[in-house]
Fold Indole-3-glycerol phosphate synthase.
Amino acid sequence: MSVLEEILAKKKAEVQERKALYSQKLLEQSIFFENRIVSLKKYLLREDKSGIIAEIKRKSPSKGVINQNVSIERISIGYMQAGASALSVLTDQTFFGGSNEDLKVARKFNFCPILRKDFIIDEYQIVEAKAIGADAILLIAAALTEREMKDLAAFAKSLGLETLMEVHNEEELEKGLNENIDLVGVNNRDLSTFEVSLNTSFELASKIPGSFIKVSESGISSPSQIVELKEAGFDGFLIGQNFMEQSRPERACAEFIEELSRLDRRAYAKS
Ligand SMILES: O=C(O)c1ccccc1NCC(=O)[C@H](O)[C@H](O)COP(=O)(O)O
């Protein structure tokens, strides 16, 4: 069984348990249900932002524990003050050590787009995403059929949420793309071997239709890589581990963005 299959099997059981505990009607009574969505698409295109989606990730199947006991309030505010365009919060508990509470805390302290990073297989989780204050959800092409991708993205749209569809190859891209998808994320981490290669992004960039915002995900560790990814057409850059493995992730993010701005200014001066 691959890690992704293992995660999905656990998620299926978890969703059934949560449905029995909190009805959809109850979730819809959350104060966040009335919130206006902050558009991830729009924020990634803002000139005054870095394009970085800074992630809160306590542990992972590939790395184990990264930074378990963190202050979500401090990191999320720090990420945004550093110039990140958006936040990504892992809400999966078993494999990533996250929780819905983490996202609610990030929502409480920040006005910015927040991506609920989880393994979504059921409409219930999309209602839950809205109920905890998320603006966008992740749908993983490798985890869903073409029909499921279309229906879940349409459901997200009906609640006003944006969908980032994650792909690893051309086949998943062709299978998953539909009119309800807002952003396409290319994951540079192979989920069966955990090998990371930015070539996955470089190879798929030109295959993603221009109408979709492009996000490169995973394994990004230097500002110069972002410069190259921008040249390849990417608008968004999802970074977790590189920040989270530092004792002060928000400082690591600020230094990274400062260096990125220096590189951007240098490139602008040359052009
Ligand atoms: O990170 C993992 O080990 C992992 C394993 C299995 C499924 C998903 C996984 N990661 C989720 C992500 O997509 C990343 O957290 C995200 O792209 C940030 O990546 P990184 O900057 O490398 O932490």
Observations:
- Residues 3, 55, 57, 60-62, 187, 189, 191, 217-220, 238-242 surround LARABZUK (CB under 6 Å).
- Residues 249-270 form the longest helix (22 residues).
- DSSP finds twelve helices and ten strands in the chain.
- The chain has a mean pLDDT of 96.
